[in-house]
Amino acid sequence: MATVVLFHSVYGPRPAVEDAARRLREAGHEAHTPDLFDGRTAGTAEEGMALAAEIGRDELLRRAVAVSAPLSERGLVYAGFSLGAALAQNLALADARARGLLLLHGTSDIPEDAAADGLPVQLHVADPDPFEPHDWLSAWYLRMGRAGADVEVFPYAGAGHLYTDPGLPDHDAEAAERTWRVALAFLAETDA
């Protein structure tokens, strides 16, 4: 059983996040879904970005650390959707005990001195994705590899940015099911 901290996107703690956590729990994992937006949700990506900007990047990161730190001794798998994936990546690269990093729809900058010796990383991303363009993803992949991470990237042609969320126009049921099948296998391996 993996212990997973799953961070929401700029849309906030939507039902899709709890649905994802339920999938993880049904597969035998412990899943935590912290609310970084104080219960607020956004109807559009623009509203969500405004909400995230209002809270501030440093405060969002502080909140994510506050939730994860008490659990980190267990060896967490950090996971997230879009904005939440960026936060998860930052935390995983700073946690020497991290057991894995599951990125859904997003990545983040990688510090030059990042060390991710053998960290299993899986990224699921739309192809193309306006928030994760090909040149960015290529550079990201190379930097993660130089940091020592064991990275797998799964692109989904024709899917929208947040294609795993059935409540959004981006939803692609087939791509979402493929993502969860691969992601659950990944989590089972991090637990081995």
State the shape.
Answer: globular
Instruction: Please name the CATH architecture.
Output: 3-Layer(aba) Sandwich
Main sheet: strands, sense, barrel: 6 strands, parallel
Neighbour order of strands in the largest sheet: 2-1-3-4-5-6
Low-confidence stretches: none
**Helical percentage:** 40-55%
Task: Report on this structure.
With about 190 residues, this protein is an alpha/beta fold. The protein has a single domain, classed as Rossmann fold, CATH 3.40.50.1820. It has six helices and six strands. It has helices at about 15-25, 45-55, 55-70, 85-95, 135-145, 175-190, and strands spanning about 5, 30, 75-80, 100-105, 120-125, 150-155. The chain has a six-stranded parallel sheet with strand order 2-1-3-4-5-6, sandwiched between helices. α3 (about 55-70) crosses α4 (about 85-95). It starts with a strand and ends with a helix. The model has no long low-confidence stretch (mean pLDDT about 95).
What is this structure's SSE topology?
Elements: E1 3-7, H1 15-26, E2 30-32, H2 45-55, H3 57-68, E3 77-81, H4 83-94, E4 100-104, E5 120-127, H5 134-146, E6 150-157, H6 173-190
Parallel strand pairs: 1-2, 1-3, 3-4, 4-5, 5-6
Highlighted features:
six-stranded parallel β-sheet; alpha/beta; 192 residues; globular; single chain; Rossmann fold
Brief synopsis:
With 192 residues, the chain is α/β, with parallel strands linked by helices.
